[in-house]
């Protein structure tokens, strides 16, 4: 049963009114948003690592500057998202401590290795492509600071997806070896990209409540289907084969049918046992520890400045 306050809150959400930081909200709404926004922020920050692996080996100066710009955008997205989470009354230090201790999740996709340059293409095309499909609806979610942060993030993500497709296009127009690299990257990133959307609707524990609160406007399976429908024709244009023998067009539904996802693999990655989980976390913890002297210096400087202006 909902209290009168909760009923009024739900009525505002049903009317499409945005909830702002200082408005009353149920504790569970606050907790859900802190969970989702902080995990989203962590994903952006950890998501820099697979691409960072290729900055020094980009094939041309132009590709290198584009990749650097993309990775910087991801840092920016992480910062907006941490700020959005902070409006809910949690500190950035607490959020980072949860990441570094392994308590907080980040997207499963960033626990896979980047083995060759074509992976930069596949990540932009498939991973950023999936991120956009998931995030466009979030621009209309009920929590104002999150919804507003998503607008700029989505604009930047669409540049990221285009740059990824452009890498794939160049490789597919190149030598047979280059085309084979593109196919190999698609083979390795396809299924993990479908897993980004989360468990099936039947297994998704948070979905019903998040839908009621308009944090989620579409279900995990609906968005996953949208990704498949959008991406298959793009793969055809590249002359690449989606690594799914069960994939087929259904003219009646107007959607592609696709094969079963290996949910054991997904659960395994969530438990910390994916190919790169330990390496990713170790890298972030080391970066945090190495930056301690710098954070301390910033605080000491701010204290000194404040003491001077008070004097
Ligand atoms: N990985 O009940 P649900 C990017 C967890 S894009 C890890 O369905 P929910 C851009 C879930 O947290 C990637 N964990 O949960 C970029 C929950 O566990 P919890 C980030 C996952 O929240 C591109 C449990 O499973 N985007 O970074 C995953 O209703 C390229 C049960 O699941 C976002 O975070 C997963 N894939 O729906 C950067 C978007 N899926 O928390 C660099 C915002 C599920 O109860 C390079 N988030 N889990 O312990 C969302 O839309 C939602 O949180 C979902 C999950 C759809 C991800």
Q: Return residue spans where pLDDT drops below 50 for at least 5 consecutive residues.
A: none
Strand order in the largest sheet: 1-2
Q: How many separate helices?
A: 13
Mean pLDDT level: 97
Beta-strand residue fraction: under 5%
- Percent in helix: 55-70%
Largest sheet, described in full?
2 strands, antiparallel
Question: What is the global morphology?
Answer: globular
- Can you count the beta strands? 2
Which ligands, by name, code or SMILES, are bound? Phenylacetyl coenzyme A
Radius of gyration: 21 Å
Written account of the structure:
The chain is an all-alpha fold and 311 residues long. It contains 13 helices and two strands. Helix content is 67%, strand content 2%. The protein is globular, with a radius of gyration of 21 Å. The chain has helices spanning 4-14, 27-46, 48-52, 61-86, 92-100, 118-135, 144-172, 176-195, 207-212, 220-238, 263-273, 277-290, 292-310, and strands at 248-250, 255-257. The longest helix is centred in the middle third of the chain and has 29 residues, at 144-172. A two-stranded antiparallel sheet has the order 1-2. Bound molecules: Phenylacetyl coenzyme A (FAQ). Phenylacetyl coenzyme A is lined by residues 35-36, 39-40, 43-44, 47, 74, 105, 107-108, 123, 127-128, 131, 134, 195-199, 204-207, 210, 220, 270. Phenylacetyl coenzyme A (FAQ) binds at residues 35-36, 39-40, 43-44, 47, 74, 105, 107-108, 123, 127-128, 131, 134, 195-199, 204-207, 210, 220, 270.
């Amino acid at each position: 049963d909902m209290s009168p306050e909760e009923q009024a809150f739900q009525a505002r959400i049903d009317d499409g009114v945005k909830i702002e930081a200082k408005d009353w909200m149920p504790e569970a709404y606050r907790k859900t948003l802190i969970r989702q926004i902080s995990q989203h922020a962590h994903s952006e920050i950890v998501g820099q690592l697979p691409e960072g692996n290729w900055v020094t080996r980009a094939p041309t100066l132009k590709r290198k500057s584009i990749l650097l710009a993309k990775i910087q955008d991801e840092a920016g997205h992480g910062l907006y998202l941490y700020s959005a989470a902070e409006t809910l009354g949690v500190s950035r230090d607490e959020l980072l401590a949860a990441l570094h201790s392994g308590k907080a999740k980040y997207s499963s996709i960033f626990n896979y290795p980047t083995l060759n340059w074509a992976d930069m293409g596949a990540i932009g095309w498939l991973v950023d492509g999936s991120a956009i499909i998931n995030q466009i609806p979030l621009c209309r979610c009920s929590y104002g600071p999150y919804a507003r942060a998503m607008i700029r993030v989505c604009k930047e993500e669409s540049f990221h997806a285009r740059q990824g497709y452009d890498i794939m296009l160049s490789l597919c127009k190149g030598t047979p070896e280059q085309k084979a690299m593109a196919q190999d990257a698609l083979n390795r990133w396809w299924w993990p990209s479908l897993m980004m959307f989360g468990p099936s609707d039947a297994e998704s524990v948070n979905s019903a409540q998040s839908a009621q609160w308009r944090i989620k406007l579409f279900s995990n399976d609906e968005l996953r289907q949208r990704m498949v429908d959008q991406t298959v024709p793009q793969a055809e244009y590249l002359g690449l084969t989606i690594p799914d023998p069960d994939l087929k067009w259904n003219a009646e539904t107007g959607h592609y049918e696709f094969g079963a996802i290996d949910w054991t693999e997904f659960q395994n990655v969530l438990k910390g046992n994916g190919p790169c989980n330990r390496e990713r976390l170790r890298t972030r913890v080391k970066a945090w520890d190495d930056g301690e002297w710098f954070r301390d210096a910033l605080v000491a400087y701010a204290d000194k400045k404040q003491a001077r202006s008070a004097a």
